Every structure is written in structure tokens, then in C-alpha cells.
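Bumping with the actual sequence this time:
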Amino acid sequence: MIDNAIRKQNIKSTGNKLIITGILLLGLFFRIHDLNVESLWPDEGIAIRLAHLDLSQIIKDRASSFCTPLYYIILHYWVSLFGDSEYSARFLSAVFGFLAIFMAYKVGSLIFDRQVGILGSLILAMSVFHIYYSQEVRMYSLVTLLILVSFYFFIRFLGETSYTVSIGYIISSLLLIHTHYNVLPAIIAQNTYFVMQFILSEKTYNKPIVKRWGFIQGILILLLMPWLSIASPGWIKKELFRGESPFFRFMHWPLRSINITAISLFKWSSGSVLLLILFLILFSISVIDYERLKESIVKKKSFWPPKINLWKTFLSHDSRVHLLLVWLSIPLILLPFYLSPLRYRPKYAISASVAFYLLIAKGISNIKNKYAKPAVICVIIALSLVNIWRYYIEADNAQWIEAANYIDRHAEPGDLLLFLDSRQKYLFDYYSKNTGSIRKIYLKKKMNTAGYNRIWFLKGKPQISAEMALDAYEVACHKVYSGRDNIMDQTLEVYLFKKNR
């Protein structure tokens, strides 16, 4: 009997390993497939340009604009080893995205069990939202990976306060904060849950673990001070340029801001309306205790009894679910404090999306019917595959390579090529084979273009009209290279103006 039990356990363990290996390989394929099909877009161009700078220059540049340097430092060494082609530069993000899938499995297994870990990693592996940012020369797949590592050590810390776990948490959280400032709400979420768990809950007050947690947070702050001392002038400059305080931005649109962050996160994390509806149903199954709610309704003989404690009746009493809810909700509440409606993008809340996926995985795990559970998983896989197929066939970025090749073929010596900013110039130079037959400068107000018979301009005619007097010129050519970011319009327009004869 014992031998049979051990044999069954080994078979189950081997099966789990094969499943997670298959999910990892599937996720890797989705992240490296068609990696170099689309042109870089301006923010990717900036990342590659920064990667070619010396480390001291990278730190100085990021500090001056109050941006974090870690991703660009890693990219610096990556392009030094493997080059700066679209495929090579984006492959780094794909690696981070691949590792994040494995960490989702580890975190889900640690919080609940292996089934939730496997389901959570499957949802993350097939998420178009995360595939997109694993195919971009930006830091968001690294953010996802590090947020999972940080929470992995945080959850372990709640159960064991060993020095190894404490050091792992400090290192992962320090790296996380140096990757993007928008992850700070996740660190605040950890502290919020800690307070709920060990101070505000009915559990016995554990003084040693509270002291150690406070000590760890103090070390984390001290280790952040060197960077903050360098970057704080950049933050002051940025806030003065905006002309409004974070508090004013939030108070100007309090409820609307939270609604926007939540709705956009759920929308982009799902990828389609059908999958969003299914995800929200599964989400509710994980966070609402329907059995206790049913008992309360039967007992009170009313769906909405006046003296009922709604919080204790509806919400699951599982502290593990509470952890994920805090992880999910705190970023959605705090992000509006320092992001205006015009600047908010779903990618800034990407750290919260993993908590959303794990709650969905828990909802699937809670399904008792042996036929319904595999059916739900199959529907999620099918809808996710449709989203992925649509993602691959639709162009997201404007095709800068096509625009640069067109100008290379049709430009003549002595032409003038105007750019709105350095991002455009870098991308054009990245793809252009024209080494110097045309002059390239930035657009300025009241420019003297009298000495040029032909002027090329990248972007759009309305912006030209606002900046330059082109009465002596006529449009000889207009090309449009369309594309879309997940929110922003990435359409690129090429104009050629010829002087009237």
C-alpha cells in the first residue's frame, strides 16, 4: 500500500513537471515568434541608444530625467555581447518574460498549491498583454519577473524568517525599484498586507517578525538613498515642468482615476471581451464565498438583510486570497497619485496583472465539477490562442524600416530631412543606409528653408503648418505607415515638399 502511494505520488510529480515544462516551452515560443517582424518604435530606439552609452552616462541620463537605470545597464551588456538588431535586443525581454512564467508557477504553488501554480503560469504564458511586453525593448517583462521574485521571498518571509529569505527579499525588491518607479505600490502592498496579517488581524502579535520586517524595510530605504540623492533633482525638475502636484492630480479626478486604472488593467490583461467576462466570473469565484453567502441568504430569508456584515459575508476568509487582493488593488489606487489621465498606460499596472491571473487560477481550482474545470481551461486556451493569432497578424508599430528605405531610394543630394525630436532621428539612422547625402536637423520655429528645393518631414502636415511657413512649397509625396501601440497611435507619415517653380 505504501509503495503504491509513493508510486502514485512520483507519477503525479513527474506529470506536473512535464506540464510546467510544456507551458514554459509554449510561453517561450509565443515570446520569440516573429520577434523581428516589426520595426522598433521610438521608446525602443531610446533604449538601444542608451545601451550604447557608457555606464556612467546611462546613470547620468536616467538620473537627470528621474528614471531608473537597471534595465538599461543590463541591456548595455546584452547588446555588447549579442548586437543591437531588433531580434537580439528584444530577445532579452523575451528571456525575462519566459522566467516570469516559471516564477508565476512558483508563487502560485507557494501561496496555494501546484494546481494553481500551473494554471497561473498557463494564463501568464498565453497572455497577449505579457507577450506584447516580452517582445519590446523595454523594462516591463523585467518588472513582471522581479515583482514575482519579490513576492516569492515576501511570502516565504511570512512563514520563515531565515537570513537567506530576508536577503533574497532585499535584493529582489532593490532591483525591482531600480527597474521602474511604478512598482512602488507593490512594495506598499506588501507592507499593507503585513500590517493586516500581524497587527490588525486576530492572530497573536509576533514581535520578533515585526521587528525583523521593520529592520528589512529600513535597510531597503538606506540602500535606495544613494540613487535617490542622485535622481531627486530630476524629479523636482519633472514635477515643476508638469506644474501640478501628485495630490492635485489625484484629487482632480479621484474615482474616475481608479476606475480607469482598474478597467484598463482588466481589459488589457484579458485581451478580448469574451475572455474578460470569463476571467471576471472566475475572479469572483475565488474572492467570494458563495457557500456562506447562500447560507446567509437562506437564514435571513433575504438577499440584502439590513444588519448583515457584507464584508464577512461576501468576501472569502482565506488570507491567501486577501494577499492577492491587496497586491492587485493597492497599485490601482496609488498609481493615479503620480500619473495623470493623459499619461496613464495599462503597462504601468503590469505588476498587478499577475495577482489578477493567480486569482483567476484559484477560481478555476475552486470549481468542483470534474467536467466543468477542464472545459473552462479549454475555453481559456482557445480564446487566448485567438488573441495571440490576432496579435501576430496585426501591425502594432509604424514600419520605420519601410519609411527609411523609401527616403533612401528617393532622396537626392542636398535634400533637407526634418525630425520632431531625437527619437525620430535615432530610429531613422538605425534603419537608413544613407550616410550623408542629405542634411538632417531638428524642426525649429521660424526656420529658414530658402536654400532647400526639397524638404522631407517625418510625422504629419498639421505639425509642419504650425511650425513653418511653407507657402513656397507644395506636397510632392505623402506616405503613411500605420501602426498602433496598445493605446497610442503609432502612425508614421512621410512628407516630401518641393519648392514651387
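The C-alpha cells above came from a reply further down the thread. The CA atoms of residues 127 and 384 lie 7 Å apart.
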